[in-house]
User: Which sequence fits this backbone?
């Protein structure tokens, strides 16, 4: 026998009944409503409580009213019994007369009174509901009504809700939680259960009190393994559901309820479409009103409609009854109707669920192909993988279209190992098949998918773009054929063939838009924007992505939104709208773990890492970059690896951390990479090589190797400029300008800056240029002081955080306290030299350098190297 546990939070909530005229406890049978009322009444012995535990006999209105008056009379000795002769017989009376009589009884009660009606669903006659509705609207302030029921009452609660005159406790509130489950287990002497067992009990029972108790008893008698067979078919639950749910239902209603077990989820429309009865809607609405173990679910696939499901144990019970009362053929017909009905609602998961159970393999495969086409077009790749994972490898390989869809979805979900598994399986199957037709049937498709995987898995492996496009035309899926153009454009982009990439991506965009495939078309949009950006047409890229985003801004659950929103990260960043860019990154971060393109993943992580660093959250920035590095292990990505290495080294340069830079160089083997690359002989552009090269140039700057940095940057600029990758060429040249400036060739540096401004215009100097060429703001400030460059006021205001008004460190009045030797050491410190390098440069002992630095920090009012460097960048 179970001892009831005390749930203090529920008792406290129920205490709120003192402040309102009506309290309703609404939950299915076995949820603990009566137990809660008993405990509340025991805890409040001083209160006046008139309680009626209603029964079937209270369905008769006059019987109910007589019991009601008898209970009230116990709390009003002065009550005139003759007033209530109206309740002494079973003749029908007008509701108004009955209400007036009850009001006279309540008005005779002087003290505060709580009238508790348990199992109020038993008093379901229309007359009782009408009288109670009228009574509640005019209750004296000292009277509080508490109803506990399995069903919603037959009167409206809207007015009470709007006036805060209603307290409602529902089934969700009464669910047993993990702590209460432990207490309940201890209360009946059960053995200590493992955490997984307790979790499983709550999953199976959904916290329903009776279900929890039966599960605990099963574990007590048979151990935790009892849960392996704990379903709604257990004798105890069959008896319970049979009595509570089916008992007393008309045969037609009972039949509809049992047939509805074919559904996982449902609404009124589905009942009417599948169960084929004009009564379906009213019956289901009645069941919903009664709350018979029906749970409102989250909308399916972002549908705006509400759906419902049965409590898991009740669904088990109904499914067994359905199997015993209907033939297999009849049940399969119901599933087929359900598949068609869900198709109308565009809920593909449910379509496939029912189609697979309809007993018609041709029907199932036809629907599966239609659903996979639709999901591929909309970018719902995880659904494609889920649907097709149910098929055996052999069955999947026998259906060319489905096999293509599976491998395509895996590649663009970055599940490269699984994609390779299927391609290998297919290759082995062809090799072992003696039929020439079987050998040749998928050969072109196999090669296309393999090359597509290679393009996304290996940044710099050579593949003929013409061959890729030629093979793609052999695939059976026109969407995939069109998207092959995007793959070719992406391949061309990787190798710096920007004009070719732009033309190919534009063609792909037109075709995919015409086919109505927004998700795949959004990849073409990204490539178009990247081409414009790299070709030095930054404003065109910004305007292009901004216009696209305006049309898709509200569609945040669509996969194509992820692609375009990724472009908006860059738009906001380039415009120096850092808060907006960071907010977009944070919205996207949870969505890109399985994004189709590594380009999207890398952009989100790298952008957020840079933004966090700018705002001073260095540790979180480094953690993000480390996480991205681990993601990139999935493939061979020198391009993205180079971006991570460049950002880490850029941060080290900004911080003046030579030790950190040396660790980064070792981690990415930058010394060997530099030595093994014939930089002066390189002709073809590779973004991976360029990014690693920039990282090495930052390292050289920290090491004071300005000559080597200048030469390396000159080679990077030459290749990017020759290949018309103008945005990257500008970054290399701006870094070279900074190196010259730091190496005391200030006049040469500012003149080179002037030349770039004359050639390209001020508009190309976006936020990215200043961040990836640390120190460029100082060169601008110097050029403006020398009247070589004139910056518009709005431009300086827009980029105020990268344009400090700076002068030569030696001439600043705030540094006048430094001696000549200290100024020399300070300049080398600002240039990024370590303590040992400063000592070598000035031919002084390391201890002497440290002594001078200690004095410098004291005079500047700082306590570390980084703070001292910051002063050099901010002084006026």
Assistant:
């Amino acid at each position: 026998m179970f001892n009831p546990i005390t749930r203090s939070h529920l008792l406290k909530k129920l205490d709120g009944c003192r402040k309102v005229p009506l309290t309703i406890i609404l939950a299915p049978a076995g949820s603990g409503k009566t137990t809660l009322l008993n405990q509340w009444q025991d805890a409040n012995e001083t209160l006046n409580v008139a309680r009626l535990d209603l029964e079937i006999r209270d369905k008769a209105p006059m019987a109910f009213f007589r019991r009601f008056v008898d209970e009230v009379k116990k709390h009003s000795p002065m009550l005139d019994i003759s007033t209530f002769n109206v309740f002494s017989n079973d003749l029908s009376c007008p509701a108004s007369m009955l209400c007036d009589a009850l009001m006279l009884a309540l008005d005779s009660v002087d003290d505060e009174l709580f009238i508790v009606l348990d199992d109020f669903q038993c008093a379901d006659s229309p007359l009782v509901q009408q009288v109670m509705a009228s009574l509640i609207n005019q209750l004296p302030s000292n009277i509080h009504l508490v109803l506990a029921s399995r069903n919603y009452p037959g009167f409206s609660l809207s007015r009470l809700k709007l006036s805060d005159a209603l307290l409602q406790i529902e089934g969700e509130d009464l669910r047993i939680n993990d702590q209460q489950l432990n207490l309940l287990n201890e209360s009946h002497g059960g053995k200590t259960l493992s955490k997984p067992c307790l979790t499983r009990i709550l999953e199976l029972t959904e916290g329903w009190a009776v279900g929890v108790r039966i599960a605990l008893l099963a574990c007590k008698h048979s151990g935790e393994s009892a849960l392996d067979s704990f379903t709604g078919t257990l004798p105890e639950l069959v008896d319970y559901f049979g009595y509570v749910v089916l008992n007393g239902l008309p045969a037609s209603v009972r039949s509809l309820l049992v047939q509805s077990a074919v559904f996982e989820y449902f609404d009124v429309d589905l009942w009417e479409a599948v169960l084929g009865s004009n009564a379906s809607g009213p019956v289901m609405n009645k069941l919903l009103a009664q709350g018979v173990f029906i749970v409102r679910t989250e909308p399916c696939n972002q549908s705006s409609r509400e759906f419902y499901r049965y409590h898991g144990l009740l669904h088990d019970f109904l499914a067994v009854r359905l199997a015993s009362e209907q033939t297999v053929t009849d049940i399969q017909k119901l599933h087929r109707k359900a598949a068609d009905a869900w198709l109308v609602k565009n809920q593909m998961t449910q379509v496939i669920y029912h189609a697979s159970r309809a007993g018609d393999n041709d029907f199932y495969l036809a629907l599966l192909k239609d659903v996979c086409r639709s999901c591929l077009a909309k970018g719902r790749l995880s659904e494609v993988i889920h649907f097709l994972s149910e098929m055996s490898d052999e069955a999947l390989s026998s259906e060319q279209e489905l096999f293509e869809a599976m491998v395509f979805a895996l590649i663009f979900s970055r599940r490269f190992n699984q994609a390779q598994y299927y391609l290998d399986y297919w290759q082995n199957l062809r090799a072992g098949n003696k039929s020439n037709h079987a050998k040749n049937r998928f050969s072109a498709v196999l090669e296309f998918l393999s090359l597509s995987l290679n393009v996304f898995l290996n940044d710099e492996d050579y593949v003929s773009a013409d061959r890729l496009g030629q093979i793609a035309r052999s695939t059976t899926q026109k969407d995939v054929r069109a998207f092959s153009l995007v793959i070719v454009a992406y391949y061309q982009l990787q190798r710096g063939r920007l004009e070719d990439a732009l033309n190919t991506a534009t063609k792909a965009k037109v075709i995919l838009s015409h086919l109505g495939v927004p998700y795949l078309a959004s990849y073409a949009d990204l490539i178009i924007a990247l081409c414009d950006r790299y070709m030095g047409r930054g404003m065109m890229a910004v305007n292009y992505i901004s216009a696209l985003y305006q049309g898709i801004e509200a569609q945040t659950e669509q996969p194509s939104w992820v692609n375009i929103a990724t472009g908006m990260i860059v738009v906001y960043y380039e415009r120096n709208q850092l808060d907006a860019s960071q907010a977009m990154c944070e919205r996207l971060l949870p969505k890109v773990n399985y994004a189709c393109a590594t380009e999207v993943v890398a952009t989100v992580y790298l952008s957020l890492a840079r933004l966090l660093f700018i705002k001073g959250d260095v540790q979180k920035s480094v953690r993000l970059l480390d996480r991205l590095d681990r993601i990139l292990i999935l493939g061979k990505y020198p391009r993205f690896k180079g971006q991570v290495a460049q950002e880490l080294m850029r941060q080290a340069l900004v911080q003046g951390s030579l030790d950190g830079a040396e660790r980064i160089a070792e981690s990415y083997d930058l010394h060997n990479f530099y030595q093994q690359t014939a930089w002066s002989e390189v002709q073809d552009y590779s973004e991976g090589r360029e990014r690693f090269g920039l990282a090495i140039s930052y390292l050289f700057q920290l090491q004071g190797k300005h000559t080597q940095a200048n030469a390396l940057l000159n080679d990077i600029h030459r290749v990017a400029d020759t290949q018309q990758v103008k945005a990257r060429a500008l970054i290399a040249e701006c870094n070279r300008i900074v190196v010259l400036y730091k190496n005391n060739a200030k006049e040469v540096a500012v003149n080179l800056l002037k030349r770039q401004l004359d050639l390209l215009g001020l508009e190309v100097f976006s936020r990215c240029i200043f961040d990836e060429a640390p120190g460029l703001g100082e060169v601008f400030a110097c050029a403006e002081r020398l009247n070589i460059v004139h910056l518009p006021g709005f431009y300086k205001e827009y980029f105020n955080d990268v344009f400090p008004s700076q002068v030569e460190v030696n001439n600043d009045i705030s540094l006048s306290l430094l001696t000549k030797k200290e100024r020399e050491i300070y300049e080398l410190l600002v240039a990024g030299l370590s303590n040992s390098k400063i000592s070598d440069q000035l031919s002084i002992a390391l201890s002497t350098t440290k002594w001078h630095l200690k004095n410098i920090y004291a005079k500047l009012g700082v306590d570390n190297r980084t703070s001292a460097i910051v002063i050099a960048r901010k002084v006026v």
Observations:
- The chain is about 65% helix and 5% strand.
- The two ends are 82 Å apart (CA to CA).
- The chain has a mean pLDDT of 83.
